[in-house]
Structures are given as C-alpha cells and as structure tokens.
Write a structure and sequence with these properties.
The complex is a heterodimer of chains A (390) and B (230).
Chain A: H1 2-13, H2 16-55, E1 59-62, E2 78-79, H3 82-89, E3 93-104, E4 110-117, E5 139-144, H4 145-151, E6 158-164, E7 170-181, E8 192-196, H5 197-204, E9 209-210, E10 212-215, E11 227-230, H6 232-250, H7 252-275, H8 277-285, H9 290-325, E12 328-329, H10 334-337, E13 344-345, H11 351-377, H12 381-386
Parallel strand pairs in A: 4-8, 5-7
Antiparallel strand pairs in A: 1-10, 1-11, 2-9, 3-4, 3-6, 3-10, 5-8, 6-7, 12-13
Helix pairs in contact in A: 1-9, 2-6, 2-7, 2-9, 2-11, 7-11, 9-11
Chain B: E1 3-16, E2 19-32, E3 36-40, H1 47-54, E4 62-67, E5 70-71, H2 77-87, E6 88-91, H3 103-113, H4 118-131, H5 147-159, E7 165-169, H6 177-194, E8 197-202, H7 205-210, E9 213-218, E10 221-227
Parallel strand pairs in B: 3-8, 3-9, 6-7, 7-8
Antiparallel strand pairs in B: 1-2, 1-4, 4-5, 9-10
Helix pairs in contact in B: 3-4, 3-5, 4-5
Classes of the chains: A alpha+beta (390), B alpha/beta (230).
The complex binds adenosine-5'-triphosphate and magnesium ion.
C-alpha cells in the first residue's frame, strides 16, 4: 500500500511525460491487436474463401498429383475407382480433370491450365452452369476476372484452344468465354480456364478420369488405393504460411509499433531509472529497503502499463469494433497480390488476442522496470547519490 | 550521559587512480544524547565523509562507528535501512529532494516509510513546513523552488519524524540570515525539549555561534574538540 502510494505519486509527479508514455504504450497495444486481428481475420477469410471456391471439405488427390508441377498432371490422372465413383454419382464428390493447353486470343499465344468440372455441380461457387452450352458452336469456358484481364478477353469473346490428348496428338477447337467470375482465391483464377468435365474428358480421351475429387461435407472419407485424401487444414498449410509471410513483410508497421512500445517503456523506465539513480540513492538514504525500492519502481512501471491499457481501451475499442464490423477495403486484386485476399478485410479480434497482448505489454513493462531498479538498489547510497555511473 | 555515537579509530580511504586517498585518518569521537555539536573545517577536510559514515550511508575502511549501539560497518543493508528510517534524520549538503514529488510529498516520505496513519502524517507535515516557513509552497515541486527553499524542504524532511539524531550537512549554506536564525532556534528548542541530538558539518559562522561543541577537522583528522561555555 505504501509503495503503491509512493509509486502513484511519482507517476503523477512526472506529469505530461507520463501521459505521453501512456499514450504511446496504448498506441502500441491497440495497433498490435489490430495487426494481429487483421492477420487472423485474413487467414480465416482465406480459409473460408478457399473452401467455398476450391476445397470444400477437402480433396482426394490422384497418385503423384502436385499442383506446383504441371508435368505431373498426365501421370496423376486415373479413372475414378468404384466406391468413390458412387459418391461422384450421388453428387458427394466433384471430380476435376486438369490438363495443360494453349489459347490464342487475337493471335497471341498463352499457356493455360484447363480444368474440367461438371456444369451441374453445386459444391463450389464457380458459375459452372453456363458450361453446359449446346453441342453446336464454340465450347463454353468460364474464367476469373484476373484471368480475363490477362487474356484481354471479355464475355462472349471467342478464340482457339489447342491441347494434346492422352496419346500426345495435338488438337484444336474454338472456345467462347461464357462467364467471368470474381473470386478472392487466386489459384482457381490466375492462369485457369474452366470447361465442362465431359468435354475435357472427351477432348483428352480420358473418359471417366480425374486428378482431383473435391469432397462435400456429407461424404464419408474412404481409403482407396492410388488416391490420398487431403484435409482442408493440410491443403491450406502453404497458403496460410504465405498469408503470414506476406502480412509480416507488408506490415512493417507491426514491427514499428512493437519497437515504439519498447522504446517508450525503455525510456520512461529503464533509462529513467538510471537517470533517477540519485533519487533511488536518496530513497535508500531515507530508510527505504532495497526490496521496497525495487517494488516501488516495478509498481510504477506496471501502473504505466495499466494506464495504457485503460487509455487504449477508451480509444481503441471503437476502432477495433469498426474494423471487425465494417472492415477495411484494400484496392488490390487477390491474384495480383499472389495470395487469397478479399476486397474488404475484417479484423478478427478474439478475447485471447486482447488478453495476450495486454499481458505481454504488462509483463514486459514490469520486467524492464524491475531489472534496472534492482541493479541500482544494490549500490552504496552515497555512490548512487553522487551519480556514479554503473 | 548516554552515548549515542562512538567513533573508534575510524579510517576512511577512497580508491583514486591506482592508490588511495585517506579522507578520514584515525578519528576518535563520542557524541552523547542531546548533543548540539558541529564538525568545522575547511573544504575537503572530511566533514561530509564522517557524517555519511555516522549516518550508515557509507562504511569505515578501518575502525568502527557505533550508532545507538549498532556497528555501522557490520550492518546488513536492511538493518542499516531500518536504523536510518527509525532513528536518523539527514540534511544533505545538496538537498537531494525527490524531484517528482511535491514539497508536501517530499516531507511526508519518511512518515510513509514509518507507516504512520494519514491524519498524523498530515498534521506533522504541515507543522514542520510551518516552522521552515514553506506553507505557501506545499504543492510546488523542487524544480520550481529557489535554493534556499529547497534547503528548507530538506531540513523539514529530516526533522518531520523527530529522529533521535539529526545529521545536518551545511544546512544553512543557501539561507538568508533571518531564516537561518529561525531554523537554528527551532532546532535548539527541539534539542532542549526532545533531547534530539544534532551533529552539524559547517563553516557558517551563524551556525557555529549556536553550537555547544565545536570539533575541528583538518585533512581528515580531529585537531580540536572543545565545549562552548554559554
Ligand atoms: N567517493 C569518493 N571518492 C574519492 N574521493 C572522495 C570521495 N568522497 C570524498 N572524497 C574526498 O575526500 C575528501 C573529503 O571530502 P568531504 O566531502 O568529506 O569534504 P567536506 O569536508 O565535506 O568538504 P566541503 O566543505 O567542501 O563539503 C575530499 O578531498 C574528497 O575529494
Ligand atoms: Mg561536505
């Protein structure tokens, strides 16, 4: 109680400087919470988007299928084995067949990934219904908005598509852009052309075959030879890592705020305690024990953190609420950025995040107050009063 | 009379360069309870050094100093702190006020350490500030005070807890003669009424004129120790 009083008096006695420190500390706390919240929200959104557009409840991969190696595609297709085929029929699994191809929009040449999917599928949000088309005329395809811009094509544009079938023979056909969709998932947009599954199977002479089977929630996971099931967590691993590194790389601010917090604490506590040597020596000379001195300064430091938490709560709560309810928009296309990213990002701030950050700042402040105070309190008081440098 | 301080064969050396500087050389002194004594001597003669050791802020290099029976050279940090807290009042030559605290809080500090109840603290602080003539400055902080005002706060802080022994290092260096005399008279009154012992370090003639015993120091040695006949 005594030390609480002396510490509080000291805090008040520091006047404007106290409030400056408290504000900087509160800035750091709120900003760390916001940055972490946005990262968390971003990850959650990325998972959500990926599930709605690409992964649903996980995927079976055929043999050595490797999304990063286009040359593995041909060896990583197989006809769908019996137990899975039944689930496909019931609409519990959506097969996707993938092959490399080339398109020639207005005479230019561009390599693409051709992905076959059933037009009637309900599992993913890709607008596949338009892939039905009719047997006459060009084959309908749909592309993402980013891909459309890359190809410099718009709805209903036509162009030549060239591919090799199972036996390596080149073939060509006219295609028509039957739909353009906007998505936050770059891996189904950037470089990808969606086409009717049966069309692609016929074109490549791979009737009944697929590389990937997308699983709906209702489907049971079955062990099948030659196919491996990948959970959403597993499939999102790389993406989430990417989100993390991207956001770490772009949020220099995060580091700045952390440094700012450290500096504020360091200046008002660590440095100040050394600057306040004489004061500490005097306190000891007046009969304070070393333990009391150390406690006095630790309490004083913790009070800074406590005040910062209160001040941060006052101005930070509405801001954090706004960012989680209304969100912030980034004028960037997901595919351009290379990672899944929605137009509007929401901060996902959990009580755990707030508590963790607050506790972190609290503990750090207490420690950087405790250590130097302990060092000085052990000095001979006359030396401390003379201001002898440690 | 009861002895309050015993200085026995005290030697204090400070390391300088690769040798030592002897600030106090074989000092032997004894102070009785209720003493009103002063260490007088030129600058550098060892007055502050001796007061620091008697005040258990520093330790002897050789010899021993007993303060109320406690050997200061052998006390633990906690024991020394307790002794200072309960028995000693220190007036520093350089004031050493706590800059973040107000005048009131500075003077209250020793009472907080003694855990006195709030009402008693308040009464004592205001009373003490009154006799040093600072009642109009209670809320000021040291940075806003003149040298003489700081000195009076330092005096009030040392006196507020009515210690058994006051160690006063040049307490009047920055005071005008009116304040000097008033404060010295109050100290004398406390000395007579409460048997508070005073040991001054000074070369101020005003202080010297009040002393009952003058101990002359030169180059770390006691060269004279005489009682003043009133
Ligand atoms: N910590 C120290 N290290 C080295 N030398 C010291 C130390 N403290 C005091 N001295 C030396 O000891 C001698 C006595 O110092 P002291 O402060 O006791 O003098 P003083 O009589 O109080 O002088 P003044 O009247 O100027 O206050 C001085 O020569 C001083 O330089
Ligand atoms: Mg001196």
């Amino acid at each position: 109680m005594l030390l609480f009083k002396t510490a509080l008096q000291s805090l008040i006695g520091n006047g404007l400087k106290t409030w400056l420190t408290v504000f900087v500390l509160s800035l750091a706390i709120v900003m760390i919470i916001i940055m972490q919240g946005i990262l968390h929200g971003w990850s959650r959104q990325a998972i959500d988007d990926a599930q709605r557009w690409e992964l649903a409840d996980g995927q079976y991969w055929c043999g050595g299928y490797d999304p990063w190696d286009p040359f593995s595609l041909d060896s990583a297709t197989a006809s769908i084995p019996e137990p899975l085929a039944r689930q496909v029929e019931q609409g519990l699994l959506e097969p996707v067949l993938i092959t490399q191809a080339t398109v020639y929009p207005e005479g230019r040449m561009q390599g693409v990934m051709l992905r076959g999917i059933r037009p009637g599928q309900q599992l993913l949000e890709i607008p596949t219904a338009v892939l039905r088309g009719d047997s006459m005329g060009p084959v309908p395809v749909v592309v993402g908005a980013f891909m459309a811009r890359q190809l410099k094509v718009k709805l209903n544009d036509e162009m030549i598509l060239r591919w090799r079938d199972k036996n390596g023979a080149f073939e060509a056909v006219d295609i028509r852009i039957a739909g353009v969709f906007k998505t936050a998932v770059p891996s189904i947009d950037n470089g990808v052309l969606w086409i009717g599954l049966e069309n692609l199977q016929a074109m490549t002479m791979r009737q009944g075959e697929a590389n990937i089977l997308v699983k709906s929630e209702a489907a049971e996971v079955i062990e099948v030879e030659g196919w491996t099931f990948k959970t959403v967590d597993k499939l999102m691993e790389a993406t989430l890592l990417l989100v993390k590194t991207k956001s770490a790389g772009t949020s220099v601010f995060y580091v700045i705020f952390l440094l700012l917090a450290m500096l504020a604490i360091f200046d008002t506590q660590t440095l100040a305690i050394f600057r306040r040597q004489r004061e500490i020596g005097t306190m000891v000379a007046l009969g304070m024990t070393r333990g009391q001195v150390v406690k006095h300064f630790t309490i004083e430091g913790s009070l800074y953190a406590l005040l910062a938490i209160v001040v941060g709560a006052v101005w930070g709560t509405p801001l954090i609420w706004y960012l989680s309810a209304v969100g912030i928009s980034f004028p960037m296309e997901a595919a351009e950025f290379g990672v899944p990213m929605a137009d509007v990002m929401y901060a996902a701030v959990t009580p755990g995040l707030v508590l963790g950050t607050v506790l972190f700042v609290f503990v750090v402040t207490a420690i950087v107050s405790y250590l130097p105070a302990r060092k000085i309190a052990t000095m001979n008081p006359t030396e401390a009063i003379r201001g002898k440098i440690l | 009379m009861k002895s309050i301080v015993e200085v026995q064969q005290l030697i204090k050396k400070f390391p300088v360069g690769n040798g030592f500087f002897t600030a106090l050389n074989e000092v032997n002194l004894s102070f009785a309870e209720g003493e009103f004594a002063g260490l007088v001597g030129p600058s550098g003669s060892g007055k502050t050094t001796l007061l620091n050791i008697i005040g258990s802020l520093d330790v002897p290099s050789e010899g021993e100093v007993l303060v109320m029976g406690h050997p200061v050279g052998k006390l633990t940090a906690a024991q020394a702190a307790l002794l200072r807290k309960q028995q000693l009042g220190f007036i520093f030559q350089s004031y050493n006020l706590l800059p973040v605290y107000t005048v009131y809080e500075n003077v209250e500090f020793p009472l907080l350490l003694l855990d006195l109840p709030a009402s008693e603290r308040k009464q004592r602080v205001l009373e003490t500030l009154e006799w040093v003539g600072l009642t109009d400055k209670v809320k000021s902080r040291p940075a806003a005070l003149s040298g003489g005002e700081c000195q009076r706060v330092a005096i009030a802080r040392a006196m507020v807890k009515r210690p058994a022994l006051v160690l006063a290092d040049e307490p009047t260096a920055n005071l005008d003669s009116e304040n000097s005399h008033r404060i010295l008279q109050t100290m004398l009154k406390l000395n007579e009424e409460l048997k508070t012992s005073f040991v001054f370090a000074t070369h101020d003639e005003k202080v010297i004129s009040y002393l009952r015993r003058i101990i002359r120091l030169q180059d770390g040695k006691v060269v004279a120790d005489e009682l003043v006949n009133l």
